[in-house]
Amino acid sequence: MKEETEVKEAAIPNTFQTEPKKDERFRPADVRHYVDDLLTTTLKTARYNAAEAPLLARELSKLISQTLVQFPEVGYPYNPPKEQSSSSAVPSSAVAGVAQYGAEHPTTGRGFPRYKHIVQVTIGEVKDQGMRVASRSLWDPKVDSCVSCHFQNNSLFCVAMVFGIYFE
Amino acid sequence: MDDLQSSEEAAFVHEDVRSIVKEVVESTLGPLPQGKPYSHESVPEWIDTICSGITKRLASLHKPFKYVVSSVIMQKNGAGLHTASSCFWDNATDGSVVHPFEGKFLYCVTTVLGIQV
């Protein structure tokens, strides 16, 4: 038996790059467009449901995160208008709606290389209560950025925050 | 930089961060289990105290990290609240701490995310 004892060190040369290239920057405006569209499409008719809400929050944040990894280099993932109505069937639940939205908006870009991101989704019930969401960050304002979108109907509200953080 | 990266100094120490968050939140919103009553006028001030207090304490740790602190305060009247986050990062170095606070009159969920530079 031959034993493989030799462990190869990953040979990644230093790039000496401390800033993102011009076309690799995080684009808050495009991300906002995408997240806004996602929230309005999937939550327009949703009702608050205590059993489904945790799953919905998780699925939303997962979908946004996956999309960001493959975000297009220009613009944002959008759905080209279609003639046939087969795919625009009304989803049975908001969670199914999220999955359908993901399937209808495939992305093949290379995202934002050298960026780490965090997606935080808060879903709550509207019941005349007071509520406030705030965030504060300690980072480099030149390269790091955040997007915050909110959506509300008469049953639930949703706040989605996306933070893009440059990794040197 | 080598010794920094190899030692524990460079890692996200959950216990330290958790105790900072707990201290700041409880000193702002009053001791448990009672907590302060919900007041619409004071909430912006509280939330600012919490977020900036935690950020300042984290900055004084002098670690090679960028931090994101976010906080939600909601009046307690039976309404539901859920938060979820997905992160795309390096599990070995980056980390998060969530601190839920439930007083008699309000909920406060504070999340701290630390990302190594």
Automatic annotation (TrEMBL), chain A:
Coiled coil: none annotated. Signal peptide: none annotated. It comes from Paratrimastix pyriformis. It comes from the Eukaryota. InterPro entries: Tctex-1-like, Tctex-1-like_sf. Residues 1-23 are annotated as: Disordered. This is Dynein outer arm light chain. CDD domains: DLC-like_TCTEX1D2 (cd21459).
TrEMBL record, chain B:
It comes from the Eukaryota. Pfam families: Tctex-1 (PF03645). This is Dynein light chain Tctex-type 1. It comes from Paratrimastix pyriformis. The lineage of its organism: Eukaryota, Metamonada, Preaxostyla, Paratrimastigidae, Paratrimastix.
